């Protein structure tokens, strides 16, 4: 049926919306929508159209063609397979699609709708079928030897069709792991391989949750939650039904978070019968240089404490009237006798402290001036400096332990997620992820423009950038929702926890002072500052809001 199986090889990544705008010099061409996802019955007819957009300042002539495509490999790549007009058996989706083969003229800066229709035959096999509509500046050429594509600019609109019948929706996580299990910083790369064991394409949706050794959340990686491109095709001639997703996670660095991390992935899939699958993997974040330094410090601390204790014990023995050599010999010969002797002498563990305090009281009682008091106290401190040093070290150690436990149990920290494919990387920070979660869970009127708010059309259309420097994850997401409810447009949302600040500051460019004052009033009278070129910000937005810990959100 197919004359040349490798006529066109396209690297198309289902997980992300592909960049279908192909530009060379000053020519730009795009289509919309980039994906049709439909279900059909045998014998059903379906009609639609694809919009071809010409943003150039001159007319374009394009040609439409229909091809099948087959998945290849685990990275989301596909191969386009033209229709064999002579040997085709009408079993592929591309053969069921009818579209014009005539030249299509698109006026400059205009959009033309190209209609097409799909007629599913009565004997169509149930399950998933795939095709693509190619729009290019030159048509596909067909000769007796092979079908080929001339050099041209070409954009693609994919078509996923699910034919009703004996549908099997079955999938599983084949593998979930990190590329490295021992890391020096909280930066891990995850590989997730999902296997489709059914006969229709599946779109697994869910998330990866990352927690530290105390069970506190340190990152969430959404999977396909707002995308139509993370589809996993069934097993075909060019695919084994496995799709690999790759993500990187970069967490906010904190010494309190060293240790063992756990990443748990939970996915749901299926249209007719929703099913779920999950998996776990672990990895360690250990900054070796820091750990070795801490261990060395602990060893020194241990030796020092041991030495101080030995000195303290010797002082106890001296008070008991024992020479250290005699005590060691006595201890070696008869421990019971030593114990009885010490008990008879009345020397206990706290005796040196008690004697020292009584001695200090006696010396202070003879002091007659404030200067003598200070001198007596100083001499006492110098005389017992090792004892006080030990107390200070123990207190410092306890403070470090309390600080570590408190910081390790911090509920949230900032993080950044990058979705990696063979030809692209897309990064999302924690504020954007939290914002999407809040937006999806909020009521419809939460993000609806407040018509009673007195804002101009200029204010509603200007771009505002938000940078969360409060040290509190999610504050930026909440403020963005609040500003959107008031009618503002927030085009940038970032998290910057490298330099936290207490006060919220609104930096504005010239001619935007009125807008800055209005936003300041909406944000509890936050400080405003004119961007006179000396500010550190490099964004191009006319208003940038640096959120501090003083911000109050509703």
Uncertain ranges = 1-25, 143-151, 336-344, 444-457
Task: Specify the CATH homologous superfamily of the largest domain.
Answer: Immunoglobulins
**Main sheet makeup:** 7 strands, mixed
- Which quaternary structure do these chains form? single chain
**What is the terminal separation in angstroms?**
63 Å
- The CATH class assignment of the largest domain is Mainly Beta
Q: Give the overall pLDDT as a whole number.
A: 77
Provide an overview of this structure.
The protein is α+β, with helices and mostly antiparallel strands. The protein has 4 domains: 8-163, Immunoglobulin-like (Sandwich); 171-286 and 413-417, Immunoglobulins (Immunoglobulin-like); 290-406, no CATH class; 424-547, Alpha-Beta Plaits (2-Layer Sandwich). It is built from 11 helices and 29 strands. The chain has helices at 93-96, 288-319, 324-333, 335-345, 351-366, 370-383, 385-408, 430-441, 457-461, 475-485, 513-522; strands spanning 8-10, 22-24, 27-32, 35-40, 45-54, 60-72, 77-82, 97-99, 104-106, 110-119, 127-136, 140-142, 147-149, 154-163, 171-178, 182-183, 187-196, 205-211, 217-223, 242-251, 259-269, 275-285, 415-420, 425-429, 463-468, 489-495, 505-508, 527-530, 543-547. Strands 1, 4, 6, 7, 9, 11 and 14 form a 7-stranded mixed beta sheet that branches. A 5-stranded antiparallel beta sheet has the order 2-3-5-10-8. A 5-stranded antiparallel beta sheet has the order 15-17-20-23-24. A hairpin with a 4-residue loop joins β23 (415-420) and β24 (425-429). α3 packs across α4. The chain is elongated. The two termini are 63 Å apart.
């Amino acid at each position: 049926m197919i004359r040349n199986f490798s006529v066109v090889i396209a690297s198309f990544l289902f997980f992300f919306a592909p960049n279908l705008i192909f530009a060379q010099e000053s020519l730009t061409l795009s289509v919309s929508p980039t994906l049709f996802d439909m279900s059909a019955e045998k014998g059903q007819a379906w009609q639609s159209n694809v919009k071809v957009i010409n943003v150039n300042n001159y007319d374009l002539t394009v040609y439409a063609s229909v091809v099948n495509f087959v998945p290849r490999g685990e990275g989301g790549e596909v191969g386009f397979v033209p229709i064999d007009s002579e040997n085709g058996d009408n079993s592929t989706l591309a053969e069921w699609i009818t579209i014009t083969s005539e030249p299509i003229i698109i006026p400059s800066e205009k959009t033309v709708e190209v209609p097409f229709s799909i007629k599913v035959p009565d004997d169509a096999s149930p399950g998933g079928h795939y095709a693509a509509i190619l729009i290019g500046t030159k048509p596909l050429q067909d000769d007796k030897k092979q079908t080929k594509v001339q050099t041209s600019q070409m954009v693609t609109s994919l078509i996923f069709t699910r034919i009703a019948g004996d549908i099997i929706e079955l999938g599983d996580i084949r593998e979930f792991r990190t590329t490295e299990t021992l890391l020096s910083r909280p930066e891990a790369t995850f590989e997730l391989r999902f296997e489709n064991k059914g006969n229709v394409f599946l779109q697994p949706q869910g998330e990866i949750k990352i927690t530290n050794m105390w069970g506190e959340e340190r990152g969430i990686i959404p999977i396909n939650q707002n995308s139509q491109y993370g589809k996993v095709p069934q097993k075909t001639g060019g695919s084994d039904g496995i799709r690999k997703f790759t993500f990187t996670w970069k967490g906010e660095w904190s010494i309190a978070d060293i240790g063992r991390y756990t990443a748990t992935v939970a996915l749901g899939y299926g249209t007719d019968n929703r099913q779920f699958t999950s998996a776990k993997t672990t990895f360690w974040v250990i900054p070796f240089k820091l750990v070795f330094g801490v261990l060395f410090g602990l060893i020194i601390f241990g030796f020092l404490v041991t030495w101080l204790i030995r000195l303290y014990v010797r002082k106890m023995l001296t008070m008991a009237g024992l020479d250290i050599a005699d005590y060691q010999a006595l201890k070696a010969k008869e421990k019971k006798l030593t114990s009885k002797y010490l008990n008879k002498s009345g020397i206990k563990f706290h005796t040196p402290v008690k004697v020292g305090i009584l001695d200090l009281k006696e010396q202070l009682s003879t002091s007659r001036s404030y200067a003598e008091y200070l001198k007596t106290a100083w001499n006492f401190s110098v005389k017992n400096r090792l004892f006080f040093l030990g107390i200070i070290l123990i207190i410092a150690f306890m403070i470090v332990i309390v600080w570590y436990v408190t910081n390790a149990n911090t509920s949230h920290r900032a993080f950044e997620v990058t979705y990696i494919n063979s030809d692209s990387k897309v990064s999302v920070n924690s504020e954007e992820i939290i914002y999407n979660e809040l937006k999806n869970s909020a009521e419809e009127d939460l993000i609806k423009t407040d018509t009673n708010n007195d804002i101009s059309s200029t204010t509603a259309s200007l771009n505002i950038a938000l940078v969360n420097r409060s040290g509190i994850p999610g504050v930026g997401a909440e403020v963005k929702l609040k500003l959107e409810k008031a009618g503002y447009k927030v085009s940038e949302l970032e998290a910057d926890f490298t330099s936290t600040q207490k006060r919220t500051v609104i930096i504005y460019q010239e001619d935007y002072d009125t807008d800055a004052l209005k936003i300041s009033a909406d944000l509890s009278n936050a400080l405003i500052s004119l961007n006179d070129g000396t500010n550190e910000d490099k964004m191009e937005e006319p208003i940038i809001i640096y959120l501090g810990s003083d911000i109050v959100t509703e």
